[in-house]
Amino acid sequence: MAGNEFLPNYVEHLVPLQEKRLVLPKKLGLIGLGIGLVLGLGVATFAIPVLQYFGGGIFLLLLGIMILMWYLWRFVSIEYEYTILSGEITFEAVYGRRQRKNYYATALKNIEKLAPVNGQVVKKENFQGVTREVFCAAKMENPKTWYAIVKEDNGEKTLLFFEVTEKAEKALRFYNARAFFG
Length: 182
Known about the structure:
four-stranded mixed beta sheet, elongated, alpha+beta, 182 residues
């Protein structure tokens, strides 16, 4: 192929799921919960004389609270990354910018309908046979947010929301042009 400007075989895109204005209150709430639990345990230790005899146990409980807070902290910031590779699209959830988990995957040939949301109210109840909804977009109001109806191998249908870049749109058209609407 002369030129080779675009090979639709590989596309990768990171979608920040939550806006920063929504993440900050969650972080502050988690910090407040941790401080509240520690202070509550400290007050209970001095208010109830029997608890003073369990100093080591209270230390372990405080340690457990700190470990729980550390573990929950990464779930405050969730992003999604999708990859289009050789006719398949794979979504991964990225927790705290460190840990990845496979979230959803399908072959592009399984997509029955693909269109931009464009301010429409798109719900799984609007489509016959859709039993599952997968949301991998930052917000519905984004003009890059598209929806897809995917017919799974087991016959069930999934409503999928994700942000489509120009490169991803070209790859989607290359692998499944018949699914495009709008």
